[in-house]
Write a structure and sequence with these properties.
Length: 249
């Protein structure tokens, strides 16, 4: 800047300097804010896309960023998101997961928040820093119930009803009928928005043990509690109808 202004008359130099300061003060932070994402894609299999709030769709691959307002649509594929607070979300096929609001500045200092919606499908998540000090800072909404956490790993399957399973920590499921605490090893079922949640022996991922045709063999979004792993290298599927054992996700 000093070199550029050396031969400019002093009055004009002051004017140019003020303009430069204006640009630095207002333009750069806006660009930085726009570039900051809530999460990155750890891996994606299939034609996974992000649908922006304005309806624009963009394909998602490993390393791509998603931000507040984006809906991740897995289609027939699968995806795993890693959020800036350390949380991870694994999305099943035919799932739509929206980031409603997200804020995390690198540490839990009271202003962080993570509000999400599961519009359809199934997911498993290991929560991060958000919600550890203030459980009201984290929320997962569905059409029939809202899920809050207390430092947790849990799974949810949602169609017209939801089934939720807690692998570690504790979740609280609430709707118009009331609230239910679901501890590690427990599952809950919610048939609609007005019926109270109840305990069930059915695991949230039971209906999803058999992956759809075309899913990458060996893909794991975290079958075992406490573990989320990347997919193996896809191989040619065996002839005949696919089979899947208890270890499939």
């Amino acid at each position: 800047m000093e070199t550029l202004l050396r031969n400019v008359p002093s009055g004009q130099a002051d004017y140019f300097a003020r303009c430069a300061l204006f640009l630095l003060a207002f333009c750069l932070p806006a660009e930085s804010l726009h570039a900051a994402g809530a999460a990155k894609i750890d891996f994606a299999v299939g034609e996974v896309v992000a649908v922006q709030a304005d309806g624009v769709r963009r394909p998602l691959a490993r390393g791509a960023e998603v931000s507040a307002g984006d809906t991740v649509d897995t289609g027939a594929g699968r995806a795993q998101l890693r959020f800036t607070d350390g949380g991870m979300v694994s999305l099943q096929p035919q799932t739509q997961f929206r980031i409603d609001a997200y804020e995390f500045k690198g540490q839990t200092e009271g202003g962080e928040k993570g509000f999400f919606s599961l519009l359809k499908g199934a997911m498993r998540t290991i929560t991060g820093g958000i919600g550890k000090t203030d459980r009201k800072a984290y929320r997962l909404d569905t059409a029939v119930a809202t899920i809050g956490i207390r430092g947790t790993e849990y799974a949810v399957a949602y169609g017209n009803s939801i089934t939720a399973t807690t692998n570690s920590g504790l979740i609280e499921i609430c709707n118009n009928g009331g609230c239910l605490l679901v501890e590690a090893g427990q599952s809950a079922y919610v048939p609609d928005a007005n019926t109270p949640p109840t305990y069930t022996k059915r695991n949230a991922l039971d209906p999803l043990l058999a992956p759809p045709a075309g899913a990458a063999p060996g893909f794991s979004s975290g079958d075992a509690p406490g573990q989320i792993t990347a997919p193996q290298t896809p191989q040619s599927p065996p002839p005949g109808p696919p089979t899947c054992g208890p270890s499939c996700y």
